[in-house]
């Protein structure tokens, strides 16, 4: 039950368009060129901002809010491009050129701003994230690292230009072929792909120093992230068990 899972401060949502074009995916690589050019420079800036944030956290314990919002915006822009392009093919709506949240666009990303961050963890997050890097490398290929693969950054997510050989790429290709011949994108495959992309983005935010919460080793499939859901009902209380509102039992006195 997703509503009973601990929420993670990185929220990744998307929805599958009900009527996708059979053939548009064949030319999306061409349509995405303007975005990939812009994202190249944005990810260069992302790396620079992350280095500045590293020293800010080291000396103050805080991630400057303006820098944080910029890096979240870069990840958000990349996620929209991923969902439109060959990491999901979930929509035919062309991604907007903006770092801001677009409420009516079918892909969303948000990261809760941390008021304080550990000064010591910034030195070892890349090391702690290695088990996740191994998993996400299978999911989304060698391009899991932030920035371009040729750019020397290794923080956790790709700029969208390189998908590599991956489970996501294989499943998206299968779905694209099904879409071409049947006009339908298999929803279970889309949900599974979204879960893998979500995992990779959580790891990316952690490695980029945006949260101290270690990413969970779990695959939250489906378009709706558990972090978007309202808290579930409290667990049932066994009969006779004391609750916070019930008085504690009083021992009999002689």
Please give the structural blueprint.
Elements: E1 10-14, H1 28-31, H2 33-60, H3 65-84, E2 107-111, H4 125-128, H5 130-140, H6 167-182, H7 187-207
Antiparallel strand pairs: 1-2
Helix pairs in contact: 2-3, 5-7, 6-7
Give an overview in words.
This protein is mainly alpha-helical and 254 residues long. The protein has one domain (7-228). It is 41% helix and 4% strand. The chain is built from 7 helices and 2 strands. The chain has a two-stranded antiparallel sheet. The chain starts with 9 loop residues before the first strand and ends in a 47-residue tail after the last helix.
* Total separate domains: 1
Side-by-side strand order of the widest sheet:
1-2
Strand count? 2
Sheet-strand content, in percent, reads: under 5%
Q: What would the principal axes of the Cα set say about the shape?
A: globular
Low-confidence stretches: 143-164, 232-239, 241-254
Order of helices and strands: EHHHEHHHH
Distance between the termini: 49 Å
Number of helices: 7
The biggest beta sheet reads: 2 strands, antiparallel
> What share of the residues lie within helices?
40-55%
Instruction: Characterize the quaternary organization of these chains.
Output: single chain
Structure, briefly:
With 254 residues, the chain is mainly alpha-helical.
Protein traits:
254 residues; mainly alpha; 7 helices; disordered C terminus
């Amino acid at each position: 039950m997703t509503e009973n899972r601990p929420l993670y401060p990185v929220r990744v949502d998307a929805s599958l368009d009900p009527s996708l074009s059979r053939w548009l995916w064949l030319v999306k690589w061409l349509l995405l060129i303007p975005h990939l050019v812009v994202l190249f420079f944005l990810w260069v800036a992302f790396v620079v901002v992350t280095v500045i944030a590293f020293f800010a956290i080291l000396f103050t314990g805080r991630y400057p809010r303006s820098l944080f919002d910029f890096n979240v915006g870069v990840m958000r822009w990349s996620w929209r491009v991923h969902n439109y392009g060959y990491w999901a093919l979930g929509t035919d709506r062309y991604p907007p050129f903006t770092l801001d949240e677009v409420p009516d666009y079918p892909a969303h990303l948000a990261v809760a701003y941390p008021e304080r961050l550990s000064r010591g963890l910034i030195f070892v997050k890349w090391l702690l994230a290695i088990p996740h890097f191994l998993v996400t490398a299978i999911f989304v290929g060698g391009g899991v690292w932030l920035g371009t693969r040729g750019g020397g950054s290794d923080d956790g997510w790709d700029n969208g230009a390189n998908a590599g050989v991956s489970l996501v790429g294989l499943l998206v290709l299968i779905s694209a072929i099904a879409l071409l011949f049947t006009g339908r994108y298999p929803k279970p495959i889309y949900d599974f792909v979204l879960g893998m992309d979500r995992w990779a983005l959580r790891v990316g935010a952690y490695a980029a120093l945006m949260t101290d919460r270690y990413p969970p080793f779990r695959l939250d499939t489906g378009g709706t992230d558990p972090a978007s859901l309202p808290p579930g009902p409290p667990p049932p209380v066994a009969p006779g068990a004391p609750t916070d509102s019930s008085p504690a039992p009083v021992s009999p006195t002689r």
